[in-house]
């Protein structure tokens, strides 16, 4: 009995190590290259990274800022992950975020007189639906007209961004002043602050609930099982009596809904007004988050926190050490590149590469001995 | 009165071509990549790297053309990285493309801060000037619109027939298209799929560098953060809307450029029609074309699929 337990534990540890080795290596290499670049700027990488950590984890409010940044990243990571599990590429989380924010803002501004326990959930739900429909449109165009979802979601990003830009310079523009933003949402539609003395708001709870939903839905419900089967092999799924088209549409709706929640959370929790610069590219970062987290719930959580750390700590690094904050984009890009290069790191491929190299060495040695 | 309208039309056409040029240059590069079976979402990032490299080249080497050369070299290197990742390692093209976009923002913003400092008064650099072609520019309407442009604009327009010929009338073009439609068949008849894709990617990336150089040395005369402002994605749209051909890309670029030129005029005149709808137009038209509502555009068959030699 005890032996069996230790055997289980062993297997679990090995599995955990296998699953996390690539992401951890990717982060390590990306930070290493980042350090080299910082070194060549004539700045000590140790000092810079120390500021990065201090700015993101060094105090209560720093940690809160990290989680504020991680909140939309978790949700946009899920927006990519939901579609990916169905074999789709959702590059449109940015647009879904903007559409979600727009719908949440509409409910938050124009519905008046409701108590917070109704108004807030209604506004959040509106965000989910807004993003969800925007995702569903891409899914429908794919199954009905065969339009590649990669391209349509990319295109829909800019349609949504220009749509919000139109709203805040036109019909939704707050009356006084020339600032292109809407009026603030009603106080009853704002996500409540949950940590005194910081800006941390209920959005993080929404994001965590969404993570749990992602896990339970995909791994413990029939619909979720179907979506994953369609993602693994659409033909096999069709033979098993599943309807890939319907699952694609559902997956894109849920994926879009996650992006919409990201927008609702940013709008109702941080900005409170609809504006053009609502998102500094959270939708695109979500792709990196999902990839680094291998589209698993825990992975997405940790990857979002890591990217939250980079975003919230980067500012202090710029202020104290003079390292341009944009360096965190370089680190993020390198993380993605190293993750997708995992192919060479996989053991069977490593053997092939090692064989190739050793063959070459053998050949050259054989040549020199003659 | 009449001459007034002629002037307005000529001016508008001139602005249209100016707006269309960067889209056209990047789109022609993309046509090559996509025809060889590679989707490049990262063209926005590549153009951005082109804009900064061109400014650096022009600043330190003293001529706009050297700027273009430096832009081509640096985007060529990025193209090589892209090719290594998607062709050799067979990493997912969409994901690598996104990474290149993020890398482009990060590298250019960081480097610009380091080289030019924060509160920069832009140093004087050599930029492109309009060059009036003697006799031709006297043609009414078309003359001032078409023959009073920067040299790089003429170059972009000339590239259209050249790439059309290259793609559809030569063996090189046949190879590129074969690799994009059916790589295995191409391989069987002795075409090196990897080489063709490497060449298409690096060549296409270099053209996106030229597009970037035109932005920072032609349309504007310095680098500013994120100055590509979605033009890479519009180029991507132009390729699809133009059905993966250089002539189609020219048409799409001119159409999208006209929307852009109109939008700028509407904003300047304080028109009550919201300009944002014109900005949306390229993206909506592309989705419509992709869905096949008006003349279905179908991508090359092997688009986005890495090739494994057996």
Give the termini separation of chain B: 70 Å
| Total beta strand runs of chain A | 0
Largest inter-chain contact set: A-B, 46 and 43 residues
Oligomer: heterodimer
What integer value in Å does the Rg of chain A equal? 23 Å
User: What structural class should be given to the helix and strand makeup of chain A?
Assistant: mainly alpha
Give the CA-based shape of chain B: globular
Largest sheet strand order of chain B? 1-2
Sketch the major β-sheet of chain A: none
Number of helices of chain A: 15
Mean pLDDT level of chain A? 89
Ranges of chain A with pLDDT <50 over ≥5 residues?
366-370
Order of helices and strands of chain A: HHHHHHHHHHHHHHH
Give structural notes.
- The complex is a heterodimer of chains A (370) and B (310).
- Chain A is mainly alpha-helical.
- In chain A, 78% of the residues lie in helices and 0% in strands.
- In chain A, α4 packs parallel to α6 (149-169) and α11 (282-292) packs parallel to α13 (327-340).
- The radius of gyration of chain A is 23 Å and the shape is globular.
- Residues 366-370 of chain A have low confidence and may be disordered.
- By secondary structure, chain B is mainly α.
- Chain B is 71% helix and 2% strand.
- Chain B has twelve helices and two strands, in the order ααααβαβααααααα.
- In chain B, strands 1-2 form a two-stranded antiparallel ribbon.
- In chain B, α1 (2-35) crosses α10 (231-241).
- The longest helix of chain B is centred in the N-terminal third of the chain and has 34 residues, at 2-35.
- The mean pLDDT of chain B is 89.
């Amino acid at each position: 009995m005890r032996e069996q337990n230790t055997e289980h534990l062993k297997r679990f540890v090995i599995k955990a190590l296998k699953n996390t080795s690539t992401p951890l290596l990717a982060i390590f290499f990306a930070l290493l290259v980042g350090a080299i670049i910082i070194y060549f700027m004539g700045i000590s990488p140790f000092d810079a990274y120390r500021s990065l950590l201090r700015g993101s984890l060094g105090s209560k409010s720093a940690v809160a800022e990290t989680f504020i940044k991680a909140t939309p990243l978790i949700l946009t990571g899920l927006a990519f992950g939901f579609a990916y599990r169905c074999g789709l590429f959702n590059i449109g989380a940015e647009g879904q975020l903007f559409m979600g924010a727009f719908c949440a803002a509409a409910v938050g501004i124009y519905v008046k007189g409701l108590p917070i326990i109704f108004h807030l959930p209604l506004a959040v739900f509106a965000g989910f639906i807004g993003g969800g429909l925007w995702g569903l449109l891409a899914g429908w165009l794919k199954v009905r007209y065969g339009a590649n979802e990669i391209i349509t979601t990319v295109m829909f990003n800019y349609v949504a961004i220009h749509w919000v830009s139109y709203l805040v310079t036109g019909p939704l523009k707050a009356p006084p002043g020339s600032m292109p933003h809407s009026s603030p949402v009603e106080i009853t539609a704002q996500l409540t602050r949950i940590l005194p003395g910081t800006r941390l708001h209920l959005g993080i709870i929404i994001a965590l609930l969404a993570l749990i939903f992602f896990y339970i839905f995909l791994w413990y419900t029939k619909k979720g099982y179907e979506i994953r089967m369609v993602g693994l092999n659409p033909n096999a799924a069709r033979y098993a009596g599943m309807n890939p088209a319907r699952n694609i549409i559902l997956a894109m709706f849920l994926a879009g809904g996650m992006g919409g929640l990201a927008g609702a959370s940013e709008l109702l929790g941080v900005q409170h007004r609809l504006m053009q610069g609502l998102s500094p590219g959270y939708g695109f970062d979500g792709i990196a988050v999902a990839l680094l987290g291998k589209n698993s719930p825990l992975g997405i959580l940790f990857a979002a926190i890591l990217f939250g750390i980079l975003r919230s700590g980067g500012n202090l690094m710029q202020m104290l050490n003079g390292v341009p904050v944009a360096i965190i984009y370089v680190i993020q890009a390198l993380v993605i590149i190293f993750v997708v290069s995992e192919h060479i790191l996989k053991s069977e491929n490593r053997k092939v590469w090692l064989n190739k190299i050793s063959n070459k060495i053998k050949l050259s040695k054989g040549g020199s001995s003659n | 009165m009449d001459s007034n309208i002629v002037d307005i039309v000529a001016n508008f056409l001139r602005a249209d071509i100016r707006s269309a040029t960067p889209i056209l240059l990047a789109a022609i590069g993309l046509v090559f990549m996509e025809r060889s079976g590679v989707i490049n979402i990262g063209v926005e990032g590549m153009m951005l790297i082109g804009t900064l490299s061109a400014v650096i080249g022009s600043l330190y080497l003293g001529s706009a053309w050297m700027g273009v050369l430096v832009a081509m070299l640096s985007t060529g290197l990025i193209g090589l990285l892209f090719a290594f990742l998607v062709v050799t390692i067979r990493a997912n093209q969409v994901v690598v493309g996104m990474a290149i976009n993020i890398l482009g923002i990060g590298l250019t913003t960081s480097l610009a801060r380091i080289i030019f400092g924060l509160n920069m008064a832009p140093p004087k650099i050599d930029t492109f000037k309009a060059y009036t072609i003697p006799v031709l520019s006297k043609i009414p309407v078309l003359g001032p619109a078409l023959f009073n442009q920067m040299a790089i604009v003429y170059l972009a327009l000339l590239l259209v027939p050249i790439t059309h010929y290259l793609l559809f009338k030569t063996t090189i073009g046949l190879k590129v298209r074969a690799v994009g439609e059916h790589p295995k068949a191409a391989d069987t008849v002795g075409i090196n799929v990897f080489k063709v894709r490497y060449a298409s990617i690096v060549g296409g990336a270099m053209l996106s560098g030229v597009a970037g150089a035109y932005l920072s040395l032609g349309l504007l005369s310095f680098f500013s953060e994120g100055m590509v402002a979605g033009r890479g994605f519009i180029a991507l749209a132009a390729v699809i809307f133009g059905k993966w051909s250089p002539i189609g890309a020219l048409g799409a670029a001119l159409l999208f450029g006209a929307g852009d030129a109109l939008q700028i005029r509407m904003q300047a005149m304080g028109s009550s029609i919201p300009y944002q709808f014109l900005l949306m137009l390229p993206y909506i038209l592309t989705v419509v074309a992709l869905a096949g509502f008006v003349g279905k555009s179908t991508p090359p068959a092997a688009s986005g699929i890495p090739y494994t030699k057996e």
